[in-house]
Design goal:
Order of helices and strands: HEHEHEEEEEEHEHEHEEEEEEEH
Structural class: alpha/beta
Bound molecules: flavin-adenine dinucleotide
Radius of gyration: 21 Å
Low-confidence stretches: 1-14
CATH topology of the largest domain: FAD/NAD(P)-binding domain
Number of domains: 2
CATH class of the largest domain: Alpha Beta
CATH superfamily of the largest domain: FAD/NAD(P)-binding domain
Number of strands: 17
Helix content: 10-25%
Strand content: 25-35%
Largest sheet: 7 strands, mixed
CATH architecture of the largest domain: 3-Layer(bba) Sandwich
Length: about 325
C-alpha cells in the first residue's frame, strides 16, 4: 500500500527551479504527459525543469485505475506516487503550487511567468497542462464523483456490468460512450437537453441497440443517492414535467476543457481549445511542443498521455541537438 504525502514528497526533491538559468526544456504540467516528458528529457542528457500547479493532474482525481499496463488496479494517488518517485529519482528541479500565467518569446528564449511572480527561461518548452472534464454543475455531482458519477466510459464502464446507467450528452463522445456501455451495462439511457448531434453512422448503431433508450429534451437537475448514486431528477422541457430516473451510475459526456489559455497567444489552438499538434508533438510555434489531454490527440487516457509526453521530449531533444550545432 502506498501513502502519498505530496508536501513531504516534494520536499524530498531538494532541487528547485533557478530563475538565473536557461533550461534546455521546461515542461509545464506534471500529469502523466509532463512527468514522462521530464523523465525522457533528463535521460537524454538535457537540462530539464518542471512547472506544475499540482503533481499527478487528473490521475489524482481517479479513484481506481484499472487499465494501466502492468498494474491490475491501483488508486490514482498510488499511481501518481509511482510516477513521481521515478521522476524524482533523477535530479529534476520542480516548481509546484503556482500556475504558469503567461509565456513570452524574446531573443529565441521562452520566458515563463508564474502566478507567484517568478520567471523562468528555456530554449524549448513542452505544454502538458491537460484538461478538466466539463461538469453539469448540478446538486450531488461533486458528492458522488467516483461513487456513481463518472466522466470516462473507457475507464469506469467495466464497473457497471449488468447495471443501469445514464449517459448525459448528445455529441459523438456521448454516443460512443453509450455504445461502449451498452456492451457492459444492462440498460443505458441517454439524456440530452436537445437532440442527438453525433455522426449519423454512430446514431444508426445506437438505434440498433436494444438496451439503449433516448430521453431527449431532458435536463439533469439533481443527482441523488445514499453512499452511492441511486438516481437522477430530470426536467423535460417539452412536456414541462419533472421526472425521476433510477440509475446505478451516470456518465457525464459533455466535453472537456483543455488548459490551454496561457498558450493561446503563442500556439495555434482549435475551436475546442485543444492545441493542434502533428505526430511529433510539434505545435505551430518552432521549439514549442505539446503532449497529452491539452492537445488534439485522440483518446484521452493515462497511457496515451504518458506516451505522448515521451514523444514530445524526444522531439524537443532532436530540436535542441540542431540548435547546438
Ligand atoms: C475522473 C477521471 C477518471 C479517469 N480515469 C482514467 C482511467 O481510469 N484510466 C485512464 O487511462 N485515464 C483516466 N482518465 C483520463 C486521464 O486521467 C487523463 O487522460 C490524463 O491524466 C491526462 O494526462 P495529462 O498529463 O495530459 O494531463 P493532466 O493529468 O490533466 O495533468 C495536467 C497537469 O498540468 C498542470 N497544470 C494545468 N494548468 C497549469 C498551469 N497553467 N500552470 C501550471 N501547471 C498547470 C496540472 O496541475 C497537472 O500537473 C480519467 C480522467 C478523469 C477526470
Amino acid at each position: 500500500m502506498f501513502e502519498l504525502n505530496l508536501d513531504s514528497n516534494i520536499l524530498d526533491n531538494k532541487t528547485s527551479l533557478d530563475e538565473n538559468k536557461i533550461y534546455d526544456i521546461l515542461i509545464v504540467g506534471a500529469g502523466p504527459a509532463g512527468l514522462n516528458s521530464a523523465l525522457y528529457g533528463k535521460r537524454n542528457g538535457l537540462d530539464v525543469g518542471l512547472i506544475a500547479k499540482q503533481i499527478g493532474g487528473q490521475v489524482m482525481d481517479t479513484s481506481s485505475v484499472d487499465n494501466y499496463l502492468g498494474y491490475d488496479s491501483m488508486s490514482g494517488e498510488s499511481l501518481t506516487k509511482v510516477f513521481k518517485d521515478h521522476v524524482t529519482s533523477y535530479d529534476i528541479p520542480i516548481k509546484i503550487e503556482y500556475n504558469l500565467e503567461k509565456i513570452e518569446k524574446k531573443d529565441n528564449l521562452f520566458y515563463h511567468y508564474l502566478s507567484d511572480g517568478s520567471v523562468f527561461k528555456s530554449k524549448t518548452f513542452i505544454i502538458a497542462t491537460g484538461s478538466k472534464p466539463r461538469k453539469l454543475n448540478v446538486s450531488g455531482e461533486d458528492d458522488y464523483v467516483g461513487k456513481g458519477v463518472a466522466y470516462c466510459a473507457i475507464c469506469d464502464g467495466p464497473l457497471y456490468k449488468d447495471k443501469v446507467v445514464a449517459v448525459v450528452g448528445g455529441g459523438n463522445a456521448a454516443v460512443e460512450a453509450a455504445l461502449d456501455l451498452s456492451k457492459i451495462a444492462k440498460k443505458v439511457v441517454i439524456i440530452q437537453r436537445s437532440e442527438i448531434k453525433a455522426e449519423q453512422i454512430l446514431i444508426d448503431k445506437l438505434y440498433a441497440k436494444e438496451n439503449v433508450t433516448l430521453m431527449l429534451d431532458s435536463q439533469v437537475k439533481e443527482i441523488y443517492g445514499d453512499t452511492l448514486v441511486k438516481g437522477l431528477k430530470l426536467y423535460n422541457t417539452k412536456k414541462t414535467k419533472q421526472l425521476d430516473l433510477k440509475v446505478d451510475g451516470v456518465f457525464v459526456q459533455i466535453g472537456s476543457i483543455p488548459n490551454s489559455d496561457p498558450f493561446k497567444s503563442i500556439v495555434k489552438t482549435l475551436r475546442t481549445g485543444e492545441i493542434e499538434i502533428d505526430s511529433f508533438c510539434n505545435t505551430s510555434e518552432k521549439g514549442v511542443f505539446a503532449a497529452g489531454d491539452v492537445t488534439n490527440v485522440p483518446y484521452k487516457q493515462i497511457s496515451i498521455a504518458s506516451g505522448e509526453g515521451a514523444k514530445a521530449a524526444l522531439s524537443a531533444s532532436a530540436y535542441i541537438n540542431k540548435l547546438d550545432k
